[in-house]
Amino acid sequence: MISDGLICGKLGSATLVVDLIPTSNRTSRPQIKINPTFITIHNTGNSNANARQNSEYANNTKNFISWHFTVDDKYVYQILPLNEMGYHAGTTEGNTRSIGIEICEHTSQDWDKAKANAVVLIKQLMSDLNIPIQNVVPHQHWSGKYCPHKILDEGWDKFIALIGPMPMIEDYKYEKIRFKNHTDVHIFKTKKLPRIVLGERWKQETLPEIVAQYKDVICATNCGMFAYDKITEHYGLLITDALYYQNSSPNFVDFIAWKNGTVSIEAVRNYNVDTQRLVNMQNNAEFGIGTSYALMINGQPSTLNWEKFSHAKNHANRTIIGYDKLTKTWYSIVADGRTSWDLGLTAKEQVELCQQLGITDACNLDGGGSSDMWLKGKIVTGNYVAERKIGTALIFK
Predict the structure, then answer these.
(1) Would the pLDDT of 166 be above 70?
(2) What number of other Cβ atoms are within 10 A of residue 351's Cβ?
(3) Is the CB of residue 239 less than 8 Å from the CB of residue 288?
(4) How confident is the model at residue 170 (pLDDT cuts 50, 70, 90)?
(5) What pLDDT is attached to residue 334?
(6) Residue 359 CB contacts under 8 Å (≥ 6 apart), including other chains
(7) Domain 2-163, what fold?
(8) Are 204 and 393 contacting, i.e. CB atoms less than 8 angstroms apart?
(9) Which of 6, 30, 110, 312 has the most beta carbons within 10 angstroms of its beta carbon?
């Protein structure tokens, strides 16, 4: 059981100790909120420190090093809340998406018992946070570092086998529908939070080229609008992975996914930098992205910003980001267009589609020749080839 980011109750025969890194230690505890979907396994890398001693090191260090749990043959120490980021994975993606577990390797402990205690903890976290077994990964998964070295030496598959057979969670659905008898629409929906990515910085790339730079992607679409200068990757707000790239613009509508599981759609009136708003988003939002216009806000059709995009009245290829707050389901939708078979959608038809699907909040992303969906290794939209180089992508894992 989890309460306020802290694990509660018994963990097998291990004694659970909560000894959080003090909030005053901003290097080890940055207090950046996360919604973890992975569990990352480490070995401590030293042979003379137990769970308490390793945890005390994290509590007092001034280095950017921290994790969530330290486990030995007798104790489990929690040193970070589960909804706060630690510095353990070696990559931003790993830090912001995963819980870090350090398994001690000091020579005076019972190694098999330490592994068994870690397995009990992992099972509890998987159950409480709905994390599938394929998302239990070694540190090596993120950064390439040979860690957890003792477990890797013994065989990662053997360690996963200790967790036991777990049912695979079917966490997404893809379907293609014929909308209004004139356009093929590709619909991907999942309970998992998407991520906004840029691929290689300051370079526009095709959707498959961007996807190839990230692990475990199931689905991806094009995302924000960009300039045809081969460099400018996005127009309007861009905050992702706790990093601020670009301010809001009065020409675009902001779609913001908050770490508390809600979304908001907002518009600013000028180019003034609202520092307090941006800091709030950087600390409390999973991402914020500038979009062209709104389609649905809080369950109601919206025409916010339509007047600034004349093509809203025309039929065209479309890409939509959507969320159903009632079922907490994310939608990524691409409508084909501009062919003899596919007419494309107007903004009004986009709203009708969102209502038909039960989407409560949605915005239009870049469209036209940029609209593409990549699914499990291939482009499924249009002519099945993503030719246009784009700036940002929306990915699902």
Answers:
(1) no
(2) 21
(3) yes
(4) low
(5) 97
(6) 296, 322, 323, 324, 331
(7) Lysozyme-like (3.40.80)
(8) no
(9) 312
